[in-house]
Nuclear distribution protein PAC1
Amino acid sequence: MSLLPSDQRQLLHKCILNYVQNQIPQEKQETTLNEGADGSDHVISTLAHWLKVDLDTADTDRPVDGSLLPRKWSSIVRLQRRIIELEKQIEGLTEENEVLMENGPASGATKSSLKWIPRERSNFSINCGASVTSAKLHPELPLLFVATDAGKLQCYDLMNYSMPVASVQAHMRGIVSIDVQLSDSSECLIVTASKDLYCKAFRLVDSQLQLIRTFSGHEHVVSQIKVWKRGTDTLAATCSRDLSCRIWDVSNGWCLKSFQPHTEWVRCLDILGEYIVTGSNDCTVRLSHWPTGRGLSFGMGHNFPVEKVKIIPMQKSAEAADDQQNKYNLFNEEYAELGFSHVISTSRDNTIRIWQVPLPRFVAHRPPQPNSSRQHFELITTLSGHSSWVRDICVRGDYLLSCSDDRSIRVWDLTTGHIVRVIGNAHDGFVNCIDTDQNGLNRQLLISGGTDGKLKVFIK
């Protein structure tokens, strides 16, 4: 059975015939013709008979390029060489993946990836059509979720980003914050907070963003939302301009707790276990116990509203792998019940501050109590370098990444407090958000979103 259609087979045979004929020296052909010999003619006619090519039509049916066969052969050689190169590359990537799977987070490859610093130019950008207000990476897959000031929630595949995998008009007004969580069945949950006073939960199913829950109760703009697992339950925490923080049960949409940690607009939050850290227009950072709503301690020092707060989770044990440790997340037995000892805050005063939180007073069978002798956060260090509001931060190994209205992204060494990389003019407008792997996978990947409506992707 032939691998080629009849027309392509005929063209190939004509090329072979033409090629053989061109290999006979011109003087030989002239001598043969003058002397009446039929040697070369016999070779050509025999080959034509074997290839089933009609000599009467071989040169008239379709013009045949005599150099076509050599050029096709050269193309095949180049293609084979490229295939060999790709096979070697695939083999190397497969070996690297096997090392990661076998050795887990403590592998050398993971250690190397945690030391990765994004280069000064993005690999590519995605035009999202409106100001990008929040962006999150899928915890496992090469997907990213993007929220815009036009109220749209979109999902893009990093392998093919020409069109969104899924897109939905999630809110009537701008989305200000999103977060992502995987369920035990690896179902991807995406939660959103908006200026329209509502929060929503979506799940990604068959390239569709399906709305599964709407949370209503806030009386003003919702500033940020975080989602996390607590046992078998999935909970969400929100903060708002109505001065309140609320804890929601995602499965039924009920509000489990509402409390007011600040006297002004609550702009940001982060949560770990039963503890929540919040930042506000009152320029303070506060630690609260959310099941009771009780404030435990606070930090003062920022001169303008706090834009973002981040808890640095402590390693679970003293034997934890040191490849993911910095001096702020080292295991501390005294803080083991709290789960962390340091938090980070950013502000419109252009600074990033790292605080050590005072340890609450723990009493058996009672909620934690404020420590009357120590209620103020201890300021450990102030990172100065941005020339405008610091909008967002991420912690990755020994590095802190920050973005700002000065259009730059900066990478800080948490050990020394020095800047190790400045990505200037990362966007044509303010840089609103950044995200990278912080737990679990450690892909060498950074994304950023700005008011220029673009999402920038930095990959090794």
